[in-house]
Amino acid sequence: SDKINIELIDFQPNSFNCKLYDLTGRSLIVEPLQTNTNFYEIDVSKFNNGIYLLEIDVNNQRTVKKISIIK
Q1: Could you say which DSSP state residue 13 is in?
Q2: C-alpha–C-alpha distance, residues 41 and 31, integer Å
Q3: pLDDT tens-place string over residues 13-66
Q4: Which residues, including other chains, have CB under 8 Å from residue 19's CB and lie 6 or more apart?
């Protein structure tokens, strides 16, 4: 799929920050998101196959996950 699906479990924030980095630390996506749901989708169709880091900051709690894009 050309999308990353994010589900925020245990809370439903009004907003959160989402950042996608390549492994060199270059920021590819920076999105402050306004939402009224705990689901969000990020389009990654323009990115090459590889490993990326997805950082999500909600209520001053930061989580970083390794994402593999394989087409």
Answers
A1: -
A2: 11
A3: 677 888 999 999 999 998 877 667 778 888 999 999 999 999 988 888 899 999
A4: 27, 29, 30, 31, 54, 55, 56, 57
